Each structure stands twice: as C-alpha cells, then as structure tokens.
Amino acid sequence: MAFLNVPRLLDFAKTPPHLQFNKYVLTGYRPVATAQDCLCSLFYLHNEFGNIYTHGIPFLFFLVFLPLSLPWVEGQWWLCLVHYLACLSPTVGSVLYHIFMNHEGGAHVYDTLLSLDMFGVCLVNTLGALPIVHITLLCYPVSRLAAMLSYTLLSAYGIYSATTARSNTRRLRAFAWQALFRLGLFLLRWGGPGAGSPSSLRLFLTMDLLALLGGLVNISRVPERFHPGLFDYWCNSHQIMHVLVICSIVYLHWGMMEDLAWLRTFQCPGEG
Ligand SMILES: [Zn+2]
User: Fold this and answer.
1) Is residue 26 part of a domain?
2) Is-above-0.90 flag for pTM?
3) For residue 194, which of 44, 73, 93, 101 sits 20 to 30 Å off, Cα-Cα?
C-alpha cells in the first residue's frame, strides 16, 4: 500500500530491552517509531495488532451502546454515570498503551503508557464497585458511607501499587485487597443484611472470577510458553487476558442492570 509505510518487523533479540517483556513471543515486533507511524500500525499485522483490537473494538461498542442500555432515571443517573466510566476505563488506557508502546521516546514513554494502562484497570475496579457498595448497604447509610470511603482508600493504595509495580505478579497482587473487600460485600448479600437484586450476585461473582482468570493467564504465559513463536500474532496469553477482561466487564454490566432494575421497586424497611 503506497500510503502506508509498513516497516520490516523485528525478532525478539533485535527489539529494545523495554519491549522484551515476553520471551515466548519471538517475532513480529514493530521497530521504534514516531507517533504517526505507531498510528499507521493499526493497518498492518504485527504482534500487538490483536492486543489493540481486542480492546479497541469493545471500547467503541461500549462507548456507543452502554449509554443506550442504561436507565438514566431520577436518583440513578450518578450510578449509571459511574458504571459507564468504569466500563470504558480499562479499554482506553490499554488501546493507547498497545498502539504507542514502541514510540521513539523509549523506556520513559513505555513506562508512562504502562502506568496509564494499569490506571484504567484500577478505575474499573474502583468505579465499577462503588455502585455495588452503595446498593449492598442501601438501608444502612452510616455503614454505606464508611464502606465507600474505605473502598476508595483501598483503591488509592491499589492504584499506587499497580502503577509502580515492576512485575505482572505484583500488579495482580495490587488488586487483591479490593477483591477481598468485594468478596465481603458479596457475603453480606448472600443470606446477610446486604441489599441488591437476588440474581446479580451470581453475575458479579462471575465477573471477578473471569478477571482473576485473566490475570493468572497473563502471568502464566500460557499457551506460548509451550510453543514459543507459534502464538506471536494470535491467541497468546495477553490476548486471552484481554478477551477475559471484556467478558468480565460484560458480567459487571449485566449485574448492574439487574441491580438498577431491582432498585426502582425496592424500599428499605421503615421507609415510605
Ligand atoms: Zn494489554
């Protein structure tokens, strides 16, 4: 294609050290490039192509269709807005990271983009859970406020840990406290005093299991570790993780839709 400057792709050994983060991906590395050339890489195949589109296409889909499906009614619009931003945030940082990671700015630009990617994951963990906290403790205003504040503080710690972590394992561990907190909320809903739609608990648990599975697949480097080079372009651990993250967001959305519908007809005991 005349308008497109398609560069010769590099092998693992020829790529800059800060891009050598998966030794089982042997070929298909883009050379160091300007911002414009990074953008051009949207239009030819390389080993980040699948990573860009597995989050790029869902981003566009969420951007347009999520607002249409949410019930923007009186008293619920802030829950809808927080939930909408939560669903969008991990795909935005991810797409920017994967498009521009080979930018000529080098390791400094790479580290900034990786922090942005991690920040997006932190935001879905934080913003995505706040409506769940609110609804679970709907009838206990003081506990609700305390839980919202505690979760926000835990999230700040998680954001700090995740954006400064030096390994995938440490990044996953940064989210552990938030996950434990959510598990506590789910226990409150399961036969306890917690409020919320009876059918959303299963959806939220599936959400967390899919996200955990994605993190573990990403750390394990399966399947490429069993056949280095075979999964350079498609179906490697990072792409599988991307797909699991999207499935996790879809379950979060389904759970929130159940809760919002339930919320419209529910009244706390002693009210009304
Ligand atoms: Zn990614």
Assistant:
1) no
2) yes
3) 73
Residue 79 to residue 251: CA distance in whole angstroms:
16
Structure confidence by residue, pLDDT tens digits, 129-143? 999 999 999 999 999
If you measure from the C-alpha of residue 232 to the centroid of ligand 1, how many angstroms do you get, rounded to a whole number? 14
Give the Å distance between the CA of 270 and the centre of ligand 1.
48
- C-alpha 254 – ligand 1 centre gap (Å): 23
Per-residue pLDDT reduced to its tens digit, 48-65: 999 999 999 999 999 999
Q: Residue 174 sits in a domain of what CATH number?
A: 1.20.1070
Give me the number of domains the chain comprises: 1
Rounded distance between C-alpha atoms, residue 130 and residue 18, angstroms: 35
Residue 43 DSSP label: G
* Arithmetic mean of pLDDT over the chain: 94
- For residue 16, the CA-to-ligand 1 centroid distance in Å is 18
The pLDDT score that the predictor gives to residue 272 is 59
Expressed in angstroms and rounded, the spacing between residue 204 Cα and the centre of ligand 1 is: 22
> 105 C-alpha vs ligand 1 centroid, how far in Å?
20
Quick one: how far is CA 28 from the chain centroid? 25
Q: How many Å apart are CA 153 and CA 156, to the nearest integer?
A: 5
Inside any domain, residue 253 = yes
Q: Which amino acid is residue 255, in one-letter code?
A: G
Is 4 among the domain residues? no
Q: Which domain range does residue 132 map to?
A: 50-263
Residue 55 domain-assigned (yes or no) = yes
